[in-house]
Amino acid sequence: MELIKHYFSDLDENQLIQFGKLNELYQDWNLKINVVSRKDIDEIYLRHVLHSLGIAKVQAFKPGAQILDVGTGGGFPGIPLAILFPETQFHLVDSIGKKIKVVEEVAAGLNLKNVKITNDRVENISGEYDFIVSRAVAQMETFVRWIKGRIAKKSEHQLKNGILYLKGGDLTEELQLYKSAKIYDLSDYFKEDFFETKKVVHLPLKYKG
Ligand SMILES: C[S@@+](CC[C@H](N)C(=O)[O-])C[C@H]1O[C@@H](n2cnc3c(N)ncnc32)[C@H](O)[C@@H]1O
């Protein structure tokens, strides 16, 4: 929790309460359903919360903006971002029902009003989004195909500003198709060793149906 306060020094009282409570909620839920690996749960603020908030160092979401979190799993990066940007709307989607159940319980426990949660594959989701965020779901080519495939099928889907994807390691090969991708090193923002190879990829895809 001190880590979050250190890098996000202007949190209000409600946000401090929510970030504080998030640990106990995940610790409790993880005993019942393993949504966060055993190793990671003890370092939840570093490996999950701060990592998710890396997206906020690259992009501040505006009040009223609509964000889709694809393959949110236990709620990352969507839940920490929804706490940080309470005026922004987040739609968290995952195809695994038991993970979505935990996300629903955590969002209710934190009293998050700006989060919509859906148990489905992203290919079945329609909507108009300012950004799509994601972590550890698929290779970029597959991910883009899901998004594009959806848009080709249903005209009501719009993506205004592209994808913000949390990735690690050498991305040269994976991103060679995407000349417009911008890569931000999280080690420029966070000094912990964990972030040494961690990046945010901004792929400014704009699809209008
Ligand atoms: C490795 S987990 C990552 C979860 C979370 N984003 C995180 O970083 O902690 C990948 C998640 O993507 C979900 N997923 C994979 N393909 C999906 C799809 N087409 N639509 C929705 N969710 C998907 C899986 O169910 C799984 O929960």
Automatic annotation (TrEMBL):
Pfam family, one: GidB
PANTHER family linked to this entry: S-ADENOSYL-L-METHIONINE-DEPENDENT METHYLTRANSFERASES SUPERFAMILY PROTEIN
Its job: Specifically methylates the N7 position of a guanine in 16S rRNA.
An example molecular function term from Gene Ontology annotations: rRNA (guanine-N7-)-methyltransferase activity
Organism, scientific name: Leeuwenhoekiella palythoae
A GO cellular-component term linked to this record: cytosol
Binding positions (S-adenosyl-L-methionine): 71, 76, 122-123, 135
Protein's cellular compartments: Cytoplasm
Protein name: Ribosomal RNA small subunit methyltransferase G
Annotated family: Belongs to the methyltransferase superfamily. RNA methyltransferase RsmG family.
Gene3D superfamilies with a match to the protein in the record: Vaccinia Virus protein VP39 (3.40.50.150)
InterPro entries: rRNA_ssu_MeTfrase_G (IPR003682), SAM-dependent_MTases_sf (IPR029063)
Sorted UniProt keywords: Cytoplasm, Methyltransferase, rRNA processing, S-adenosyl-L-methionine, Transferase
Protein EC: 2.1.1.-
